[in-house]
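User: Before I run my own analysis I want an independent prediction to cross-check against. Here's the chain; please return only the C-alpha cells and, at the end, one sentence I can use as a sanity check.
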Amino acid sequence: MTEIHKPAGPSTVRRVWLAAGALTAAAATVAALALTSSGSTTGPGGTTTALMAVGEPLAGSHQQAVQLLDSIADTAYSVNSDTAPRGDQFVYVESKASSYGIVQNSGGKGTVHFYGPTERQLWLSVDGSQAGLLEAPDATPPLPHQSLDPVTQPSIQTPTYAYLATLPTDPHELLKLIYAQTKGKGHTPDDEAFVAIGDALGGTTAPAAVSAAFYRAAALIPGTELVPNAVDTLGRKGVGIAREDSFGVRTEWIFDAKTHEFLASESVQAVDSATLPNPSNSPSLSASAQQDVTDPDIKAGTILTSTAVITRAVVSQSGQLP
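Assistant: C-alpha cells:
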C-alpha cells in the first residue's frame, strides 16, 4: 500500500487506508503497515485473505459504465446544494478500512499480510491551514488523537475542500489537469488518473459541480465497466464502476443503486499471484523490502484494499462529531 502524502514513486495499488493528503510520509507508512489483523483467515504460506464479497464486472459494459457515471454526475450536481463550508471548518469522514500491507521481518524480508477491518474517524481542514486529526484506536499500534500535518500545497492527490473548489468543472479540462498532476505515477496515465479520482471522491468532500465533473472525467477514461451487483465490506449492496489496471488490479467504486451515494472503494486482485508495490523510498524499510513483493497466495477475487464510507459531514472543529 503506497504512502498517501508522499508524491514520489509508483502509486497505483492504493492510498486507501487514509484519505488522500491526510498524513505526513512517516505517519502514512506507520498507518499503512499497522492495521489490526482481525476479521480474516489464514491462507497457504501464512498469508491472510479477506472475507469480503466481490462484484463481477459485466463483460463489454463500458457504455453502461459511462451511462451510470453520467447519471451519478447528474445526481451529484443536484444534491449537496448547501452553503459551502467556511475555511476554518473541518470535513469529517468516518469509515471502515482494510488492506494488504508489507511487513518487514527481523531479517529484512518483506511479506504481505491482510489487516482490518479497522474503524477510523478523520477530520480534515477545509482550507488545509489547520492540523487534521485521526482517531484509529484499533490500529496496531493504536493511533488515538493522531495529529495530521496541515496541507500547505494541495493537489489532486493531496486535496482540501478549498482546493477542490478551484478545479475546472469541464470534465475534459479536469481530466487534463489530473493527467498532468499524476504524470510519472502509477503504471499508465489512465491507471493513475482513475485511482486519483476515486481517492478524491472517497476521501473527502467536494463542491457539487466538482464532484459531477470528477464522475464525467472518469467516464472519459477507457476501460471502465459496469458492476451490476456490488457489495462493500459492510455488506451494503449497490452498483459499481470498475476498471482493471495494467497491474492486474481492479479498482471498484460502489454506489447506492437508488440514491447514487458513494459507498465504498475497493481494489480487487483480478489475476492469480499479486505483485504489490511497497511504500516507495520508505526510510523504515530495508532496500530489499522496498521492492515490489509477489505473493502467489493472493488469488483472483481477493480484496486488496477496501474503504467503506459510513458518515461524511462538515463540523466546526477537529474532534467534533456531526
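Sanity check: The longest strand covers residues 110-125.
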